[in-house]
Amino acid sequence: MPLLVLPSSLWRIGLAMGLPLGYTEQGLRDIIGTTMWGPLYLVALAALTEGAALLTLGLVRPWGEVVPRWIPLLGGRTIRPRPSPCPPGSASRF
Question: Over 70: is that where the pLDDT of 4 sits?
Fold first, then answer.
């Protein structure tokens, strides 16, 4: 799953860097704008989608059954099967 969203993330990062990837110069300026918020938004969105895609691996890998030990107060506890699809399910709505 993380590899499926990688092209989209790379495209967003390219746009944030100012590469016109499929847009004219004017179209790129219209999308990103002249402030730093446009590129920051694109990079944050790329990171968020990659992180959400990584969460879906927890549904099929053993580390999705037990909370990692380094997390305070919850480390080592098993994850109940009922709420486990919630984070990846909410991530699929991007």
Answer: yes
